[in-house]
Amino acid sequence: MFTYIIKRVIGAFAMLIVISMVTFGIFYVVPQWAGASPEAMASRYVGRAATPETVHLVAERLGFNDPVIVQYGRFVKGLVAGAEYDYGAGVEQCPAPCFGYSFISGQPVWPDLLDRLPVTFSLAIGAAVLWVVGGVSVGVISALRRGSFFDRLSMGTALAGVSLPIFFTGMISLVVFSYALGWTPPGGAYTDFSVNPAQWAYSLLLPWITLAFLFAATYARLTRAGMLETMGEDYIRTARAKGLHEREVVVKHGLRAALTPILTLFGIDFGLLIGGAILTETTYTLPGLGQFAILAIRNQDMPQVMGVVLVAAMFVVVASLIVDLLYAVVDPRVRLS
Amino acid sequence: MRRKTALAGAATAALVLVLSACGGGGGTQQPADSSSGGAAQPAFNAGLNEVYNPSTKKGGTLKAAHSADWDSLDPGDTYYGYSFNFGRLYWRTLTMYKPGPGPEGNTVIPDLAEGLGEPSDGGKTWTYKLKSGLKFEDGTEITAKDVAYAVGRSWDKKTFPHGPSYLNELLDWPKDFKGVYEDPDADYSSAVEATDDSTVVFHLKEPFASMDYVVQMPMTAPVPKDKDTGAKYKEKVVSSGPYKFETNEIGKGFTLVRNDQWDPATDPNRPALPDRIEVQVNVNADDLDNQLIAGDIQLDIVGTGLQAAALGKVLPDPALKARTDNPTIPRLWYVSVIPDTPPLDNVECRKAVMWAADRVANQTAYGGELAGGEIATNVLPPPIVGQEKFDLYATPGNKGDVNKAKQALAACGQPNGFSTTMTYRSDRPREKALAEAMEQALAKVGIKLTLKGFPGSSYFSDYAGNVNYVKKNGIGLAAHGWGSDWPDGYGFMQAIVDSRTIRDAGNYNLSVKNDEVDKLIDQASAELDDAARAKLWVDVDKKVMEDASILPVVWAKSLLMRGKGLTNVAYNEGQSMFDYILLGVE
Amino acid sequence: MSFLDVKDLKIHFPTDDGLVKSVDGLSFSVERGRTLGIVGESGSGKSVTSLGVLGLHKGGRARISGEIWLDGEELNGATAEHVRGLRGKKMAMIFQDPLSSMHPYYSVGHQIIEAYRIHNDVSKQVARKHAVDMLGRVGIPEPGRRVDSYPHEFSGGMRQRAMIAMALSCDPELLIADEPTTALDVTVQAQILDLMRDLQSEFNSALIIITHDLGVVAELSNDILVMYAGRCVEYGSTDDIFYRPEHPYTWGLLGSMPRLDREPTERLMPIKGSPPSLINVPQGCAFHPRCPFGERTEGKAETAAPALTETEGGHLVRCHMSRDERRTLWENEIKPALETS
Ligand SMILES: Nc1ncnc2c1ncn2[C@@H]1O[C@H](COP(=O)(O)OP(=O)(O)OP(=O)(O)O)[C@@H](O)[C@H]1O
Ligand code: SF4
Ligand SMILES: [Mg+2]
């Protein structure tokens, strides 16, 4: 088990390195192939109508004149050993892991990422609770009452949930619940948990529900299918023959087995979400990693893009590692290998 | 002559003040019943020529939002119209646009300075005298040194790459100047100096007439040297205006509160009504419109108008439409007709494009009359001082003239037409629609267009504004748009028609490469007489149109919504949006 | 009245294709300490019958009629909750495939403990001791260690022993074993059957063994019920069925019995055709499409359903042929053929 974890962690590292190189490559090499000079690249980070001198200075400051490999080396060095940042009136130390400074705002990337993580985490955790509880219970009930009105209604809704995009459901829900009815706060009304937990939950209610709706749909359908399958298994019959209460049969014997594939999905989904619930955060103006990612890409802010991509990738990798380990806990048959 | 115009301006301003009981301007009396606002009836364009819902009531919180983020809050490092407008809440500059509605909004009045600039040496030296009693938020006195230092630091484009470089270009900087950070002891008095505590003197390389417009830009907002932290100054700007920063989280938002060191006696132009101003940035643009409509926020800071989604909701609804103003702004949407790309190197071929274009279809592509703008027949937009409207390529119903286009093609030696490529910004649906309209119209005379869309963020750096790319890929037409930095000919035209600004990449002048145009620009820039100068800019406009290297599409209009509960709302021509320093809340 | 008395049991499933008459008027009884074997081809309704007795069709789609008397108590009319309380305690079941019948995620011990604690209010430790005991009694070596193993860590025979331990954990008075040895190889089969016989005499419970293999029931059962298409076609003592069988279907089963002196696949008198669909059970005698003697009943087989009639001393047969005709056929044709092969 221990060597397995070590191997996985090393694999994850290798993966992150590859991801960082690919991201870096897309950012620097592709424009060069398209014939962009360092100045052309720098002209994205100056004000409008900047003079050639300004552009040249900025290209120099951002290091665009160096070969890509040198630039990449500088990035890695910052991550490992930290870097220095000259803000004109002085020099600032950026301790490792230093993802560098935004090309646009000049803000250090790492503290910004850390700062935004709780928002995304808050969004993901609340939505996850809602969608797992909601999706799984709807799926279970649908499976147990297959063909009933409830089953048809919830599976129809689930289909809608999977196919409607968040920026649509999100915008509609804001217009209806926040602006027309006034039940929920307007977009962008995030309050930190440490400031006021009740306000925190209230401000996230609508994003949670919208996001959970999207995922709950998938989970309901998957749970339903899984339950239909496991409830037909022989061991369910055995459990009943023992005289177990039906509730225990369903939850302890049926659901436990049906949840295993859902666990895998959940791990990946949750990992991806922590890496940034891009559409939800953009729609509701939540200052999380997803919004950060969108802004970074829109602004072509390389250090921010690198930072958010690596952090997001790390979450996915860690989540899938945790899922694999949990899998062994859940299903004893996996433990042997 | 300039003084005369200023006088006339003052007279008109007084008239407007009486009519609209505006809170801005030099301390006017208010009708008692509207002192707290709220009595106004919303009507379409009600804030265009007078103050809507006038009020002198202080207090309350103004909630504002921005669909993206500032380039920088540092007065030396910002270059957006909204930033210039909004920044005046926490900074003061030597001069400023006259606050309030109507055409006077285009005129410049003193702010920190006692009067407008005094030119000498034929317009090569400009002197500004500061008022007394000016203070920073920490209570220290604002002196001419702080203004000169602000200008000096803004020179450093390595630290402040975003701000305009007008002063870098205009002033006579020392040859070996490295900026105030690399060389803290450098003497740059050859460019700008404080000859005493209240006198700032600018030394220019060439005579330049529009200096009062330039110094209303925030590079002249005073910065205390001992509080200057270079690129990090934007995190904690020291206020010289009526508000100061309470909090500032870059990328998320900030809050302004009253600056008790600001003395209204030195500042008749800022009523400073709200107690607090809360600003959220990076708000989803569509949600921002919804919040503005619903009243959860009161001000869309960017000030370019509603998004397409909201337009569809607002225009058909009389109650919502009554909350909007629809000004023509100093912005032109146009097509660059690039003379480097054969056969467009022949002026007759460019003229063929002018004749063939269907201006009505182009206007429709931009959203029509209200959302898009007025059909443009020449380069300078109507709000520019001294603008003249003329039309060298008038066609029946503005729908294009196939015969004249064919004659031009024949004269160009391409009687059967030709093929070329047109670029547009793919993230701008209106430019895409424009490209498609052009494709259809030009096809009628045998000019075949291939359309290519590119991301807006690298459009000028990598594609349409990149000389190599344009040459290699034979780009003939490029969708383009330009807004004015200040409402005179120089402010609008210089960046897009002066061929000497063209460099390898990041160009905004994509197509105007004409010696005569350049010569006229120099002449106009140096002309100190307002009327004569305006006339010269009209000549530049005519030359460019004769050159047929710019095909005007529309003079843009924006549809601005007045926030719920907002008082003292007025469209200001100088800002080309609502005047943010006037605003109050009910 | 017997300890278990099933009277005219019908279990029908409405499906999209029609009504599946899995059990259609079945009656039988078992006493404490006695063993009944139920034999029939695949799909004849054996499992449905046993699940029906345990009340496991309750609450589903099944339409159940008839009476199930257990120890003087009628179960078909009783509430689902009441029957659940009896399940596992008073009556228990051993299933065909022990691998799929045990939950893969729970240890064997956990599953036995669970079965025990539903019906006995004891601590986990006590239940665990009991589970270890039970595992020891069914012949699992080192039960104290194996109690924590998972089903997949057991061999097939051990799993079946564990299943038996689980079923017996509450001392049930009625034990139904549904094909308890089908999934096992021959030697293990014999061991399991021995174990069941020993345990039955020890616990003195009523035992029903369900199988499609007459060989399994030969040694174990006192009585045998031969099922075809949801009904009983012959019923009698083990001797009756093996030495004096009177139904053509039973003959067929005897003929296809695997014997040690023959290849298992080789059949002397195979039953031609395949079992009927339980949706469209053939008119008349359900067996007639496959019966080699159908023509001897002058067309009655196709039209009229034969009744289950007693030939002699509790031996029941469902066939239109006369008793004499059947006995003559058995003595003269079938028995000699079976013996010479
Ligand atoms: N829940 C159900 N719904 C519909 N039909 C069913 C159901 N359960 C059993 N059946 C049908 O009833 C018939 C009898 O099934 P049963 O499982 O009792 O056969 P069996 O005699 O045990 O066969 P095997 O030897 O293969 O175990 C089969 O045709 C089966 O398809
Ligand atoms: S009734 Fe006829 S068909 Fe049925 S078993 Fe007897 S002989 Fe065969
Ligand atoms: Mg069966």
From TrEMBL, chain A:
Coiled coil: none annotated. InterPro entries: BPD_transp_1_N, MetI-like, MetI-like_sf. The keyword Ribonucleoprotein does not apply. SUPFAM superfamilies: MetI-like. Keywords: Cell membrane, Membrane, Transmembrane, Transmembrane helix, Transport. CDD domains: TM_PBP2 (cd06261). One of its GO terms (biological process) is transmembrane transport. GO terms for cellular component: plasma membrane. It is found in: Cell membrane. The chain crosses the membrane at residues 12-30, 119-144, 156-180, 200-222, 257-279, 305-330. It comes from the Bacteria. Belongs to the binding-protein-dependent transport system permease family. This is ABC transporter permease. It comes from Nonomuraea longispora.
TrEMBL record, chain C:
It comes from the Bacteria. SUPFAM superfamilies: P-loop containing nucleoside triphosphate hydrolases. It is a peripheral membrane protein. Pfam families: ABC_tran, oligo_HPY. GO terms for cellular component: plasma membrane. Transmembrane segments: none annotated. Keywords: ATP-binding, Cell membrane, Membrane, Nucleotide-binding, Transport. GO terms for molecular function: ATP binding; ATP hydrolysis activity. Its main location: membrane. Signal peptide: none annotated. The keyword rRNA-binding does not apply. It is found in: Cell membrane. PROSITE patterns: ABC_TRANSPORTER_1, ABC_TRANSPORTER_2. CDD domains: ABC_NikE_OppD_transporters. GO terms for biological process: peptide transport. The keyword Cell cycle does not apply. Residues 4-254 form the ABC transporter domain. Belongs to the ABC transporter superfamily. PANTHER family: DIPEPTIDE TRANSPORT ATP-BINDING PROTEIN DPPD, OLIGOPEPTIDE TRANSPORT ATP-BINDING PROTEIN APPD. This is ABC transporter ATP-binding protein.
